[in-house]
Design goal:
This is Lactonase family protein. The chain has about 400 residues and is an all-beta fold. It is about 0% helix and about 45% strand. Strands 24, 25, 26, 27 and 28 form a 5-stranded antiparallel beta sheet that branches. A hairpin with a 4-residue loop joins strand 9 and strand 10. It is globular, with a radius of gyration of 19 Å. It starts with about 60 loop residues before the first strand and ends with a strand.
């Protein structure tokens, strides 16, 4: 497979056979009722701000997929999960959204955003109260694979993998998207070993709120920008270069705001990064193990999440099909690998903590399902909850 081409993004085709024919089962109680509690807005880059009381009653779970893949879904999947038992019950599909491979929610919990990971990239807004699609707006690039909402709620940030670009869209008061306010191409440095060009993989806001960071797998670089919150434009202020061929994919901040953790997809490592809030400067540390077994085959780290209290971090390993558990030490400056647990599915593409931090969800792309784990608040240990929930070509699971 051409790792540098767009096919790298999907890893489906022959591997999607196990997901073919799957669909979201009928919900025990139908779609979430109109009087369901307003979704909680999860933290942008870690788990909840701090452990909180477990909410009562079922909560919404939104599921990303590839609608153009064999065995893929028909739009954004919806489900409900029990925050006490972890049980997921299926729901309906929000149609009219093509290839929604990554999802994010507005801080006010009223609007859901999805990328449309296609050659002509776009982002789509969905009003959650009635699930009406509010419209889409072009990103100006190709194959957007990540998006996030700036904490102020006025701008949507997105990353185009295919074109190596990052885009900013203004958000209306209704949650709908206005025209793009900026588009930046990662034209330098030169692509890393085996890469044909830049591949922006993530675009997020730092905890200080004043800087936004773009992770680019193709150039082995993390770019820091300052976002003009009036004009919606970007100004580059710093860049941090990973070691050649690392293939940085996903950056997750520690709640303290002075450290972040980088999952490197191509060299199967993670790194601790120091972050300076005043300047936005990121300093990438030495590579560390992911807990995978090199003799068992190639592993592609996907994403890290950090618990709201900052004590533990979890890494999704695609290939090894595991979750690595780390103790976070020295106020965030150090990760210590504690071990791994099987994910219970094939190719965990995305991992997310529930807002109360009590559950961890993994979207398993090749097996077409979502696994749920209970998180022990004291030890950080993960315990599987029931059987994985079938969801076609599951590439994102967003619990609210």
């Amino acid at each position: 497979m051409n790792r540098a081409g767009l096919s790298r993004r999907r890893f489906v085709g022959a591997f999607a056979g196990t997901a073919a024919g799957m669909s979201l089962p009928a919900c025990d109680g139908g779609s979430p009722p109109s009087d369901a509690p307003t979704p909680l807005a999860p933290a942008t880059m870690t788990g909840p701000d701090a452990p909180s009381a477990t909410p009562s009653g079922p909560r919404p779970l939104y599921l990303g997929t590839y609608t153009s893949a064999d065995g893929g879904g028909e739009g954004i999947g919806t489900a409900m999960y029990d925050p006490v038992t972890g049980r997921i019950s299926g729901g309906e599909v929000i149609g009219g959204v093509g290839d929604p491979s990554f999802l994010a929610v507005h801080p006010d919990g009223r609007t859901l955003y999805a990328v449309n990971e296609r050659e002509d990239g776009a982002v789509t807004a969905v009003r959650l109260s009635d699930r009406e699609v509010l419209g889409s707006s072009p990103t100006g690039g190709s194959s957007p694979c990540h998006l996030s909402v700036h904490p102020g709620g006025r701008f949507l940030l997105s990353a185009d993998y295919g074109s190596g670009t990052v885009a900013v869209h203004r958000i209306e008061a209704s949650g709908a998207l206005e025209e793009r306010t900026d588009l930046v191409t990662h034209s330098e440095p030169a692509p890393g070993p085996g890469q044909q060009g830049p591949h922006a993989h993530q675009f997020v806001t730092a905890p200080d709120g004043g800087h936004v960071l773009a992770v680019d797998l193709g150039t082995d670089t993390v770019y820091t920008y300052r976002l003009d919150e009036e004009a919606g434009t970007l100004t580059e202020v710093s860049r941090a270069t990973a070691r050649a061929g690392a293939g940085p994919r996903h950056l997750t901040f520690h709640p303290g705001g002075r450290y972040a953790y980088l999952a490197n997809e191509l060299d199967d490592t993670v790194t601790v990064c120091a972050y300076e809030p005043t300047s936005g400067r990121l300093t990438i540390g030495d590579p560390q193990p992911t807990g995978s077994d090199p003799e068992a085959g190639t592993n592609y780290p996907a994403q890290l999440v950090v618990t709201g209290d900052g004590r533990y971090a979890y890494l999704a390993n695609r290939g090894h099909d595991s979750l690595a558990r780390y103790a976070v030490e020295d106020d965030g400056a150090r990760l210590r690998l504690l071990g791994t647990v099987p994910v219970g599915g094939d190719f965990p593409r995305h991992v997310a903590l529930s807002p109360d931090g009590g559950l961890l969800f993994t979207a398993n792309q090749r097996s077409g399902d979502v696994s749920v784990f209970r998180v022990d608040a004291d030890s950080g240990e993960l315990r599987p909850v029931g059987e994985p929930f079938a969801s076609p070509v599951a590439v994102c699971a967003l619990p609210l």
